[in-house]
Amino acid sequence: MTTIFEKIISGEIPADIVYQDELVTAFRDIHPLAPTHILIVPNKAVATVNDLSEEDAAAAGRMLLVAGRIAAQEGIAESGYRLIINCNRDGGQEVFHLHMHLLGGRRMGPMVARN
Ligand code: AMP
Q1: Ligand 1, closest atom to CA 27?
Q2: What domains appear along the chain, each with residue ranges and CATH number?
Q3: What is the pLDDT of residues 55-110, one digit of tens each?
Q4: How far is the CA of 30 from the centre of ligand 1 (A)?
Q5: Which of 31, 37, 99, 101 is catalytic?
Q6: What pLDDT sits at residue 17?
Q7: Bridge-partner residues for 19, per DSSP?
Q8: How distant is the alpha carbon of residue 115 from its chain centre?
């Protein structure tokens, strides 16, 4: 099933793309939870972390490298930021195209809510 992120990667629907190369695309989250809230996704449609295979290693590694570069561009590398990948129901995943949230520009607070 095609997700909205595939359409953003291909340019079919608009997004505020901050970075794109042959492996990954990064764009601003449409409902930002912090002054910087960027999603970094593999260009290949991988649904969740569970679906990654050895052949995706370069894209998965690139996601992390690009996160650091974008954090520097956004001026939050030194102040700090949080990277989040949600997986399936308990992780709170809503879009089933693997994505890493890059959040910063304010204190992020506790890592997870206490129940
Ligand atoms: P998750 O809960 O980890 O699956 O996060 C999905 C994220 O995608 C949410 O933070 C949404 O705000 C974001 N999102 C959904 N549609 C779009 C869109 N068209 N452009 C940018 N971000 C989006």
Answers
A1: 21
A2: 4-104 (3.30.428.10)
A3: 999 999 999 999 999 999 999 999 999 999 999 999 999 999 999 999 999 999 99
A4: 6
A5: 99
A6: 98
A7: 26
A8: 26
* Amino acid of residue 22: E
Closest protein CA for atom 16 of ligand 1: 30
Ligand 1 pocket test, candidate residues 8, 94, 96, most atoms within 8 A of CB? 94
Amino acid at 60: A
**Beta-carbon neighbour count of residue 35 at 10 Å?**
12
Checking if the pLDDT of 1 tops 80, the result is no
Q: What mean pLDDT is predicted for residues 46-52? A: 98
Please indicate whether residue 99 is annotated as part of the active site. yes
29 CA: nearest ligand 1 atom? 22
Q: What is the pLDDT of residue 29?
A: 98
**Does pLDDT of 115 surpass 90?**
no
The secondary structure of 33-74, three-state, reads CCCEEEEEEECCCCCCHHHCCHHHHHHHHHHHHHHHHHHHHC
* Rounded Cα distance, 96 and 77, in Å: 28
Which amino acid, residue 24?
V
